[in-house]
Amino acid sequence: MQTAGGFSGEAWDRNAALYEKIRTLPFNAELAAGTLSRDRFQHYIVQDGHYLMAFARALALAAAKAGDAEGLIQFSEAAHGAIVVERSLHGGYLDQFGIATDVFEQIPLSPACHHYTSFLMATAYAEPYPVVLAALLPCFWVYAEVGKDIHGRAAPDNPYQAWIDTYAGEDFHASVAAAIRTTDRAAAGVDPATREAMHRAYTRATQLEWMFWDSAYKLEDWPV
């Protein structure tokens, strides 16, 4: 999945150490081993359900800002896909946990989820198209790499196999590759200041990816 050229190659290299911190988080190590506690995974699934709704809205805004039909179609379909994942994969887990839809909707966003979704929505509304794509890319790319890594070391009969298979699957990886290509095309003609803004957005989103998984492991809640 990693690309050697263009903006994406630069962004990956700049944030390689941060990705490694994500890959080796206790949450992901225990998820791969199948030993992650139900409480921690439940916390993650609930917050990720909230996150995906905001992610879908940010994707829809990216589609609206796209300068060509290809980008409009790509990110409109990606927004639809995020909702499909939320309703199928996450909905299935919520059923297992006995969390009804109305109960899920009343569970507040954790501080990390609130921070991440607020960042994405603010960026999607206020920033130019290339910067929006850079902010959205880590959710695609980091998940694909983590999913592939966990799939390669997952314990047999892993209770979280459905999650692992989703993010290690060919369909998801194809959508990630498409997002990388589109982001690189959008970055190709930008001025240096916009390119640096793209890098800042990509790094911030990657930091928030770390925070999101770490917060689930810590069962994060509002302190006051």
Automatic annotation (TrEMBL):
Assigned keywords, A-Z: Hydrolase, Thiamine biosynthesis
Q: What reaction(s) does this enzyme catalyze? A: 4-amino-5-aminomethyl-2-methylpyrimidine + H2O = 4-amino-5-hydroxymethyl-2-methylpyrimidine + NH4(+); thiamine + H2O = 5-(2-hydroxyethyl)-4-methylthiazole + 4-amino-5-hydroxymethyl-2-methylpyrimidine + H(+)
From what organism does this protein derive? Microbaculum marinum
Q: What is the superkingdom listed in this entry's lineage?
A: Bacteria
Q: Name one GO molecular function term.
A: thiaminase activity
**InterPro entries linked:** Haem_Oase-like_multi-hlx (IPR016084), Thiaminase-2/PQQC (IPR004305), Thiaminase_II (IPR027574), Thiamine_Salvage_TenA (IPR050967)
Q: In which pathway does it act?
A: Cofactor biosynthesis; thiamine diphosphate biosynthesis
What sequence ranges are listed for the domain Thiaminase-2/PQQC?
Answer: 26-218
Its annotated function is as follows: Catalyzes an amino-pyrimidine hydrolysis reaction at the C5' of the pyrimidine moiety of thiamine compounds, a reaction that is part of a thiamine salvage pathway.
A Gene Ontology biological process annotation? thiamine biosynthetic process
Gene Ontology cellular component terms for the protein in this record: cytosol
Name this polypeptide is given: Aminopyrimidine aminohydrolase
**Claim: Hydrolase is one of the keywords in the record:** yes
What EC number(s) has UniProt assigned to this enzyme?
3.5.99.2
Give the UniProt family note: Belongs to the TenA family.
